[in-house]
Amino acid sequence: MTEIAFHFNLPDKTAYLCRLLRKAVAHGARVAVSGDQLLMTELDKALWSFSATDFVPHCLASSDSAIVNASPVVLGVDASAAPHHDVLLNLAEDVPAGFERFNRVIEVVGDGVQDRSMSRRRWKHYEDRGYSIVRHDLARKGAD
After folding, report:
1. Residues 94, 139: Cα–Cα separation, whole Å
2. Which helix (H) or strand (E) holds 66?
3. How far is CA 131 from CA 66, 127, 134, in A?
4. Distance of CA 59 to the CA centre of its chain
5. How many domains does the chain have?
6. CATH number of the domain encompassing residue 58
7. Full domain range(s) for residue 8
8. Is there a contact between 68 and 83 (Cβ–Cβ < 8 Å)?
């Protein structure tokens, strides 16, 4: 069964996403990121500039198929057509169709009212279907 994790209470969601993707790639994970195009463009830019010493290899899902298949992080993925089924990082408002094909789904929730409200709907969706949910409250740990 797919492992579901929620990372929430993030004051700087984009910076956290960059660190999370850097950590995932360092551990050999392949990550498909789903979300709206504006957010994917913002994340793409942030991944190029968040650290002077680190690079997170990534591409947009609209890139050439050879690049998509070789990239450990693919941004803007339709989960049902992802190039792999390792980790799905969901930044969309809804539960992505096909999420159950992935080994892990990570939901990242900022501290905004709308973000929190939409995440509650996704949480309920997973919970109603019997998925156990791992909680990562970053307000308690600090956002690292």
Report:
1. 24
2. helix 65-70
3. 34, 5, 10
4. 14
5. 1
6. 3.40.50.10110
7. 3-141
8. yes
